[in-house]
Please model this.
Amino acid sequence: MTLARVRAEGVFYLLVLPFAALTILFGLWPIILSVQVSFTASATALSPNPTWVGFANYATILSDELFLASLWRTLAYTVMAVTLNLAFALGAAMLLDGTLLKRGNMVFRLVLFLPVVTPDVAGYVVWRWLFDHSFGAVNAALDLLGLPAFGGLTTVQTATFAILIAELWHHAGFYMIIFLANLAIRDPALEEAAKMDGAGAWACFRHVILPQLRPAIVINLVYATIQFLKTFTVVVVMTKGGPAESTTFVSYLAYQYFDQARYGEATAMASVLFAIVIALSLLAYRLGERGRT
Amino acid sequence: MNRRWASLLAYLVAIPVAIAFVFPYAWMFSGAFRRTRDVLSDPLRLWPEQFDLSFLADIGRIGGVPLASYFLNSILFTLGATVVGTVAAALGAYALVRRPDLPGFRLIRSGFMLTVMYPYMLLVIPVYIVMHTLGLLGSALGIVLFLSLGPLQFFLFEQFFRAIPKEVIEAATIDGASEFQVLFRIVLPMAMPVTATVSLIAFLLNWAQWFPVLVISRGPETYTLPVALLSLNTELGASFQGIMALAVITTLPPAIVFLIAQKRVMQGMAQGAVKG
Model:
């Protein structure tokens, strides 16, 4: 009896082994190493006997103007990107949910989702050149419409806006299908009742549909917040953090420090960003849970 | 009446948005075939003046490595990571769902959740050390194993296995089937559709990966298409036409896979996300 049980349980350990091994080797181990490196002096971080410096690296980055500026920049960018992406995705989902687009519906859906499965490097490379002053179609189009030229990636005022557009193009389709999945399972009787009571289209959306979208809003909020806090690829491809550091977000700054062999500070930044990601995700889940009861 | 106006209005919004979303693809395609000076004189034109094939020479070799090598790496690493990741996620999720009570199993799941939350890009330093310690730096195996782990794959399987009624499995166990028989004769055949979905999504996600590939690589010999594109784009004096052509080659395989299996991909991605 016990032997049979041991054998039966052994099977499950065998099944979970590859998954557990991958998680430990390429997930947990690097994370532990990262935390460990953040407590050592950069010069000795990668040697077998590193010098432990306690929280010195954390103290250094918290008094580092570059880091603090990039942290605020990252938070501000995240707020803008999350708002823009979710508002756009919700609008697109509402447009697609009805029958107004008839045959155009599937095409519109595909067109908005295709960038999600397009390799981000490829998409951002194309956008980088679209914004280019001599090659770019963006300014040529604005010129054609009689609008003033767009500074694109070269001016401090417009670079953030330019990467917001490129990221919207790449990510919004994903948030859109989450909204669509939620819209598909809502209760149509509620809307009929509201219409019967004489509610207009906006009142119906605001007081009947939107409350039912709470699950999708929470999921999208968590996903988008994590996504944009980590913003990295778009910066590497399109701006290299410039102009004048206006797009140097925490991930990119940490990467630059790493490149300069400032391992301790770079990993300390990683820990800080990780803590923020976890705190914000928990907060969003809490808000979602509270709304359910 | 009212409805027709509303429909017209919907199209008036949808069409410009759709054009803005498709334009980068059209522009990329035409840029691959247009001579650079033609693009400079008329950036908006989409139909090439003539189909210029000089990009073939521009990107025949990138960083001293032939284009075919990047393409082959992309195919092999993506497929390898897809197979390893799908199998590991399927078996792992099944074991964790069936016996969450076994010692250590909750810990494995929490550990996985933690790695999902960690800012992926910032694993760079430690992953480098891990690969170095394991002797996998610069190896295809290291790249494949690192890419194989993904949250969406695991969540889709977990969700599917949770939905299987307990009675189905209990009935088989009472009939004297061993755990392996239950898995291979009952559960896995049921899981074929979700396995197909997971493989498709894993393929699309893995194809796009660039940072881990760059970090684990020792040189361009193990670069994939996105990494080659990135290094070409940062190369001084690289031709615009070549960059666009390489972007087309990088984009086309996942775009084709997606367009063939769009419904499955979109549904799967929405489901996998809802779980996480």
User: Anything to note?
Assistant: The mean pLDDT of chain A is 89.
